Amino acid sequence: MSVAIALPQPGLGTFRLQDDVVIASVKSALELGYRHIDTAAMYDNEAAVGRAIRESQIPREEIFVTTKIWFDRLRGDDAIAALRESLAKLELDYVDLALIHWPSPNGEVPMAEYLGALDKAREMGLTRAIGVSNFTIAQIDEALSLPAGKHIVTNQIEVHPLLANTKLVQHCQSKGLQVTGYMPLAVGKVMDEPVLQDIAANHKATAAQVALAWVASKNIIVIPSSTKPAHQKANLEALELSLSADDIARIDQLDRGERVANPPFSPAWDQ
Ligand SMILES: NC(=O)c1ccc[n+]([C@@H]2O[C@H](COP(=O)([O-])OP(=O)(O)OC[C@H]3O[C@@H](n4cnc5c(N)ncnc54)[C@H](OP(=O)(O)O)[C@@H]3O)[C@@H](O)[C@H]2O)c1
Q: Could you tell me the distance, in angstroms and rounded to a whole number, from the CA of residue 161 to the centre of ligand 1?
């Protein structure tokens, strides 16, 4: 691993959030102390995210900005053009992390082609670091065998108490990759789990906070989204919660492989 770029814990997710809603969400998070914002070309909100970052008046270099390249931009050097378009919308000279949002469906575009282009974008200074998202164990191994592989810092994947994704998480971590856990609240589903509610009551916390603390206890960066400053603050404070080994073991039992993000172009997931 030649790049020692650490992703700040936690990040703020922005999927589904648009216009004034995402502007307000990013600004309040930055005010509360978040320094890591996760967007994507596919979210169609990069211009608003960029505006919120500028209006926060926090120096650019203090904020870690991630964007992602959609799978229709993987041929030849198109990933570089796609990243330039994202930067133009964000009105930024560089992002901190550029991810391949999904592996090329059915391996249609060879990984060497698009990871090579992504790494070229890094060499050109368009991004400080590169990474992947929704890659399986086999795809991580292939990526790491390529020249670009030594610059990959993270695999961003779905992780929450209902989908622990343990094999993939441990595989990535054993290869020195940081795991970023998306949908850490299973987009709200975790709040209905009696075990989480029970553990939360013992800690004078909420089920959402317990879910985030559990993901973070696995050395995973969490990127919950929230439109509400009170929730954003609670999500920051969740990382101070110290769950006991017994709490963690009880939450480990909730894993039922329940995916929220499972579109038709998904790779063959690890079980
Ligand atoms: N790489 C990928 O393919 C991929 C896929 C999906 C997501 N992501 C990234 O991961 C981020 C997180 O996923 P997500 O936004 O889909 O789902 P999520 O973070 O699991 O859940 C967000 C939902 O939880 C609620 N919430 C947040 N904090 C809460 C709290 N403390 N108490 C109660 N409710 C709370 C939010 O509502 P309020 O607004 O009311 O707080 C929102 O409805 C995305 O925004 C995106 O950046 C990446």
A: 14
